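We emphasize that the prediction below concerns an isolated chain of 246 residues; any contacts that depend on oligomerization or on bound cofactors are therefore not represented. The input was used exactly as deposited, without trimming of termini.
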Amino acid sequence: MNLVVSHNPDKLACRAAQHGAALIRQAVADHGTACIILATGASQFEMLRCLVAEPEIPWHRVTAFHLDEYAGLPITHPASFRLYLWQRFASRLPTPLAAFYFIDGEGDPQAECRRLGELIHHHCVDVAFVGIGENGHLAFNDPPADFQTEEPYLVVPLDEACRRQQVGEGWFQSLDKVPKQAISMSCRQILKSHAIICTVPDERKARAVKACLEGPVSPLAPASILREHPEATIYLDEASASLLAR
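Result of the prediction step, given as a token string:
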């Protein structure tokens, strides 16, 4: 695992995007295609804006997978991550992606996990763009996360801390409006990516960052599992890194 701390949150996001863009270009140069995983949430706004603006990425050779989505939430809801990724990423690209496998949370969630699992089984992921939640979650794998399953996608419960974060970020008007389940890529599936770019700005993430980077690798701090990946790079700003001992 590698750690990068920036004085400027916006520059941090663009450094993360530049790193990821270089990996995408290299993957296409090496074997003609690239496959990526995309996260959502407020922490990814600037990173995605910078990634879309990166030059000379042959997006028509890139396949994308969606990291997580609420169960039972329609795509028309402002908090829908399918809507988020369409508005903030896919629709802004200069050329369409080769494929974008969105998570459909509106049908049978177990059937959707099976569908996505079969699809991702046929792809080697070059770059996973992820974040860390206020409760330390990785994707929607809230603590205690399942570190053992090899299933690519899971139906997971959302804990109260996670649900409160969604209200705090303005996606929902109140806690009772936030779904209690989601479809999430599993921790082990994320770790199968060749490289991981983790962008974590903001002081409200500082406690989670400290727990995940300096505490034990534990399901109680799900993103701590990124420390097991040799090509994971964590991009922090001074605020999110403020509680680190080193």
